[in-house]
């Protein structure tokens, strides 16, 4: 039979190396929820062996299996045979996309990005509506700096769907006296959703944005979005030189606090825990900075969930799952909220707008008598609340 799917040697070797030991099964959030063996990396590798030797053909059912993955990387860190499950899923999605088998819910997101430059198909002019009034007015009057030391990149979700992250982020940087500019209404999606669905439009999207960023002459970029951070630091270098240092807000705030430019005086109380976003934690190994910040907020007791850092449970919000299978994403988030309830946390903090959004939905899916008054916040909100 003819081989239907071919892979570069690195991935082909990994697929063939999978010994079906099943270690990946124990950590896969999708398997944990569905209990479907085809859904974990072991099952996916078995299917790929058949797709490679031609005994199986790509289909909508196969596409469903490969798009049902949060790209959380938990399998990759667990596999004793060195199978990089999430990367192989991403490779398979590129082929499925080319074969026209990408799910409509995801190609709908692609169309929104093509039409309006953002995942929600919202008007590009509305991107600055969430800015603090002074900055918004500057943009409207054409007085925003075209060049600055620091470029702030908000991301689609904080710009259009979250009321608090962008104002908290900007006000904290104002308090620290940071010299910044933004792309304002010229900011577009970083392209990560295109990459995750396997679209070859990711590269041109990235190139256009790189050009705009370089034009600001900034020396550094800061973003409160874990997905954008991962995209800029791990995917863009393959495409072009951004010409600046990229920081996530947790790294940047940790530095500003250490330099005494932001003082945490306290405004919060109770037990607080941190949820590691997969795109920041397992993908970029940023674990300590957010914890350093939270432990310095006077009046709070920091508690660690049992599954943390490299072992953190995925909240279910990544990999395109919020668009592809929102119900499953929320069910996974509810499990993560229960992890926090188990250690008595009253507040879950994250450094990812998608995690915040999904965890909030997950909390609401838990009966009120069980979830109590648990709250979910982004770290930018904690910083501005504590800095006063
Ligand atoms: S842990 Fe690795 S070798 Fe074992 S079944 Fe999973 S992918 Fe295969
Ligand atoms: S990346 Fe995460 S969700 Fe996807 S197969 Fe691996 S463990 Fe499961």
What is this structure's SSE topology?
Elements: H1 9-17, H2 23-27, H3 29-34, H4 41-53, H5 60-67, H6 74-78, H7 85-98, H8 104-116, H9 133-140, E1 150-152, H10 156-160, H11 165-175, E2 180-182, H12 192-197, H13 202-215, E3 220-223, H14 226-235, E4 245-248, H15 249-258, E5 270-274, H16 288-295, E6 300-302, H17 321-324, H18 326-342, E7 347-350, H19 353-364, H20 368-371, E8 375-378, H21 379-387
Helix pairs in contact: 11-21, 15-16, 18-19
The structure holds iron/sulfur cluster (2 copies).
Write up this protein.
It contains 21 helices and eight strands. It has 388 residues and is α/β, with parallel strands linked by helices. The chain folds into three domains: 9-98, Alpha-helical ferredoxin (Fumarate Reductase Iron-sulfur Protein, Chain B, domain 2, Orthogonal Bundle); 104-256, 3-Layer(aba) Sandwich (Rossmann fold); 264-387, Rossmann fold. It has a four-stranded parallel β-sheet with strand order 2-1-3-4. The chain has a four-stranded parallel β-sheet with strand order 6-5-7-8, with helices on both faces. Helix 11 (165-175) packs across helix 21, helix 15 (249-258) crosses helix 16 (288-295) and helix 18 crosses helix 19 (353-364). The chain is globular. The structure holds iron/sulfur cluster (2 copies). One iron/sulfur cluster is lined by residues 27-30, 40-41, 69-75, 85-86, 89.
């Amino acid at each position: 039979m003819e081989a239907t799917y071919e892979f570069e040697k690195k991935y082909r070797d990994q697929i063939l190396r999978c010994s079906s030991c099943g270690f990946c099964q124990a950590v896969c959030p999708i398997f944990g929820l569905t209990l479907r063996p085809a859904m974990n990396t072991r099952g996916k590798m078995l299917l790929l062996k058949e797709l490679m030797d031609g005994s199986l053909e790509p289909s909508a059912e196969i596409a469903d299996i490969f798009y049902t993955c949060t790209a959380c990387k938990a399998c990759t860190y667990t596999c004793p045979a060195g199978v990089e499950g999430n990367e192989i899923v991403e490779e398979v999605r590129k082929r499925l996309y080319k074969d026209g088998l990408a799910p409509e819910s995801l190609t709908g997101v692609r169309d929104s990005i093509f039409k309006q430059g953002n995942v929600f198909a919202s008007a590009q002019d509305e991107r600055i509506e969430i800015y603090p009034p002074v900055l918004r007015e500057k943009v409207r009057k054409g007085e925003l700096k075209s060049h600055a030391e620091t470029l702030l990149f908000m991301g689609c979700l904080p710009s259009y769907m979250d009321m608090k992250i962008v104002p908290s982020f900007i006000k904290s940087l104002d308090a620290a006296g940071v010299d910044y500019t933004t792309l304002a209404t010229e900011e577009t999606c970083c392209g990560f959703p295109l990459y995750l669905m396997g679209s070859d439009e990711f590269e041109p999207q990235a190139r256009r944005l790189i050009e705009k960023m370089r034009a600001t002459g900034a020396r550094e970029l800061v973003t409160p979005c874990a997905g954008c951070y991962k995209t800029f630091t791990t995917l863009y270098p393959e495409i072009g030189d951004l010409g600046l240092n990229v920081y996530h807000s947790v790294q940047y705030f940790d530095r500003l606090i250490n330099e005494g430019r932001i003082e945490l005086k306290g405004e919060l109380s109770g037990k607080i825990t941190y949820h590691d976003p997969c795109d920041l934690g397992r993908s970029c190994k940023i674990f300590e900075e957010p914890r350093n910040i939270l432990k310095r907020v006077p009046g709070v007791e920091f508690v660690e969930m049992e599954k943390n850092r490299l072992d953190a449970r995925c909240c279910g919000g990544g990999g395109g799952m919020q668009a592809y299978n929102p119900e499953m994403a929320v069910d996974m988030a509810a499990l993560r909220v229960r992890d926090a309830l188990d250690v008595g946390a009253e507040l879950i903090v994250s450094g990812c707008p998608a995690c915040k959004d999904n965890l909030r939905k997950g909390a609401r899916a838990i009966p009120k008598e069980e979830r109590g008054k648990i709250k979910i916040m982004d770290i930018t909100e904690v910083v501005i609340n504590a800095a006063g």
